[in-house]
Amino acid sequence: MVKFEEIFGVPAEHRLKTEFHSHGGGQYESWTHEEFDSNGHLIARYESWAHTTYLGKPTTEGWRKFDLAGRLLDQGETLPI
Fold it and tell me: In the sheet where 72-76 sits, what is the strand order?
């Protein structure tokens, strides 16, 4: 299974802290992430989401990476779900 770290391109020496949030009985799932460098400094924030049908099939999914000032740095449409 692909991990968030691989999708976001987080270096192996960095740490990704992930929190799960679920809305609407599991039909809308979202996550927030914080990337820390090897010295423990926060260097980026991410948000990711997956919308699914009642049958559990993804309809939309994606992620965004932000710097500490909130500027969008990168984004994608694939998640490890």
Answer: 15-23, 28-36, 42-52, 58-66, 72-76
